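Case 405 in the screening queue. Each case pairs one protein sequence with one candidate compound; here the compound is EZ4. For every case the pipeline is the same: read the inputs, emit a complex structure as tokens, and attach any notable structural observations.

Predict complex for case 405.
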Amino acid sequence: MIIDKIEVFVCCPGRNFVTVKVTTSDGVYGLGDATVNGREQAVVALLEEHVIPCLIGRNAHDIEDIWQYLYRGVYWRRGPINMAATAAIDMALWDIKGKVAGLPVYQLLGGKSRKGVTLYAHANGENIAQTLDNAQKHADAGFKAIRLQSAVPGLDVTYGVLGDKKDYFEMQGNRPLPPEEAWSTPKYFNMITDLFAEARSRLGNEVQLVHDVHSRLTPIESARLGKLLEPYNLMFLEDASMAENQDNYKLIRQHTTTPLAIGETYNTIWDCKDLIQNQLIDYIRVAATHAGGITALRRITDFASLFNVKLAPHGAPDLSPVCLAAHMHLDIWAPNFGVQEFVGFGNDDLRNIFPHSTEVVDGMAYLSDAPGLGVEFNEEAAKAFPYKRSYLPVSRLEDGTMWNW
Ligand code: EZ4
Ligand code: CO
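Case 405 output:
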């Protein structure tokens, strides 16, 4: 099982995806996701120039050693670009091991801890009524957990709530530069409790509700929000505040029993260590692509299990179906799994490029017995959707101050 060839593909069926394909001397191949939104080509360059040459000729079965080699062996540890390259190789090697064993990856992790993976869907809207109409559709389709986001009245665009507006790329006149949007905490507070009060009266008490603040609040504002939302019994409040200073969450935790979740931008176990071991969060939202692959997420998940923190992986549309598959295998295994973010399997082009065998019924995902990760990559189909430079928006206060503290 010698690593013979490693290829990197970038395609853009709506979003850019960086896909890694590792092929062994036996002709078995595995796939990994190395997508870092807005920095896609940086990962490609790192892989092609510095990572791939070190791996050719190694034994594809040595997943742990290769992970440690890529983590400890470099002078410049950690960081999103570095860890995404490591993650993609790691996923591909797990995919290969599963294919050689004839087993899905979750079997290699220890088998299933549950029948299916509980998903949370996204309900967004230009106003509260529209958000709740969308939430009702998800509830009717059987989703047991729903994330609610609504545009903030008085702000032009609210992050994650584009509604009928065009996508960010079109909104900036197809200019491949980061768009900018305004944020106002007072305006947000004028809307947010109404959203959840109306949600409970329309959707009832059974459905689990989630909200993502996208780190737009300071710690004390987050504490206030958590308190205000307590009557509506959220499953969790995500990314209430930035936490480079992990003590921020100590402050929030002192004031509210609303469960807290964070982690989609974290790159290693060290980024979440204090939050987990001090029990300052309830869900850890790391992504396999951004935190070092299946090997790293398994380690974070086991560590979190000691402190009653549950795994709730990121599931945004800029993670490829290969990453989503890696998450589903971890989710179905993890004794301390919470919930999986899920925005669907994408448009026809995306599903044609990455065919898979996972089924979603009543808001639950069911994995097939396909060996490895159970996702394919159609190289020919991908060629029709070349890389397109695009970025997520930059957030400023209305007076122009750069935001997200
Ligand atoms: O900010 O898609 O939880 N999901 C999210 C998403 C992400 C973007 C970038 O990955 O926060 O809206
Ligand atoms: Co998020």
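Case 405 observations:
- The longest strand covers residues 3-11.
- The first helix runs from residue 40 to 55.
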